[in-house]
DNA sequence: AAACAATAATTGCGTTTGCAAATGACAGTC
DNA sequence: GACTGTCATTTGCAAACGCAATTATTGTTT
């Protein structure tokens, strides 16, 4: 018997949303939203990124990210400069201010994660992370299959 | 050395968002959004729920859910009725139409999940689910601790 | 039983989001 | 070197979202 509450996407989403809520509130006092933190932490890990790459890395939709970067630039957290040799792409980087801020937030993120998983054997968490990373990769390969199913249905019942 | 891309919330969120995207597209042809599916599947599992309980079950913010239920009622998928004995609460249920629809979608959800995790030993997935459920529970108990940290910071730097 | 507090849901309002269309820039073709 | 196509980003627009305030009902106090 199927139960939503035992399905993998449900269990995943629930923990993700909840952790996001808690961490958002934790960093709100720094004037930073969760997407902003993700962008800064991503740039701290790999700087000088293009918009599309940053979108892939953070799983933020590209138009949303474009506007977010605009706001963060306005706040002096990142730079966004058109490349000289390829002016259709843009290079995004942390400013010193953005770097200082994210380096203040990262210890908070580390502590948050520690507290969240401290009741579990670290081996479990490590395995969990590995599986999550692998599942993410495998999703790319099943995407065409999903799209197929959509088309199959459309063909069977047009405009249904 | 900290890396965002190795942090638990990041890995979690990424898989959650991606699976959500794929499944959303899969069911879009039925005129149903992902939040709508979650509500219907939740009601299919446990019917006759109050708004607040349904919000907790689906991790949808309560005002968002209130409006969503309004739209779903308009579409004839659910009923929302004030209780006679306690008129400040409401009871939400599937209509026959809503039930029929969700029973059409559930097999799709089951198949989707199967495909998504088919490359992994089912024991791993089972363990993963267990850990996710436990972590979710444990988040409730750390919430006060997180809030404490916020207050501590506020006290140290008012309006900072 | 009047006043006050607590609970449940809804609504106002500004912000964020995502799709689709538009823009801008480069690459290949004839 | 104009013409067409492709790639990367931005923008228009309507829908979805979340917080805070509001409404409606029930529970408690004296």
Describe the structure.
Two copies of one chain form a homodimer. With 160 residues, chain A is mainly alpha-helical. Chain A is 69% helix and 6% strand. In chain A, helix 1 packs across helix 5 (96-117). The relative contact order of chain A is 0.09. The mean pLDDT of chain A is 91. Chain A binds a DNA duplex (30 and 30 nucleotides) through residues 35, 50-52, 61-64, 66-68, 70, 82, 86-90.
Rg of chain A? 19 Å
Number of helical regions of chain A: 6
DSSP, total strands of chain A: 2
3D shape of chain A: globular
Low-confidence stretches of chain A: none
Structural class of chain A: mainly alpha
Task: Give the secondary structure arrangement, pairings included.
2 copies of one chain form a homodimer.
Chain A: H1 8-28, H2 34-45, H3 51-58, H4 62-74, E1 78-82, E2 90-94, H5 96-117, H6 122-156
Antiparallel strand pairs in A: 1-2
The first copy, chain A, binds a DNA duplex (30 and 30 nucleotides) through residues 35, 50-52, 61-64, 66-68, 70, 82, 86-90.
What is the structure about, briefly put?
The structure is a homodimer of 160-residue chains. The first copy, chain A, has 160 residues and is mainly alpha-helical. Chain A has helices at 8-28, 34-45, 51-58, 62-74, 96-117, 122-156; strands spanning 78-82, 90-94.
Key phrases:
DNA-binding, 2 strands, 160 residues, mainly alpha, homodimer, two-stranded antiparallel sheet
């Amino acid at each position: 018997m199927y139960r939503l509450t035992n399905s993998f996407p449900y269990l995943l989403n629930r923990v993700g949303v909840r952790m996001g809520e808690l961490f958002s509130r934790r960093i709100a006092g720094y004037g930073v939203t969760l997407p902003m933190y993700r962008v800064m932490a991503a740039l701290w890990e790999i700087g000088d990124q293009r918009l599309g790459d940053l979108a892939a890395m953070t799983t933020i939709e590209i138009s949303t990210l474009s506007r977010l970067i605009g706001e963060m630039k306005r706040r002096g957290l990142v730079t966004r400069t058109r490349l000289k040799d390829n002016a259709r792409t843009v290079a995004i980087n942390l400013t010193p201010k953005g770097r200082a801020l994210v380096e203040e937030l990262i210890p908070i993120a580390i502590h948050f994660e520690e507290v969240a998983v401290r009741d579990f054997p670290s081996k479990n968490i490590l395995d969990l992370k590995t599986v999550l990373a692998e599942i993410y990769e495998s999703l790319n390969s099943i995407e065409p299959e999903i799209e197929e199913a959509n088309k199959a249905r459309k063909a069977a019942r047009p405009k249904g």
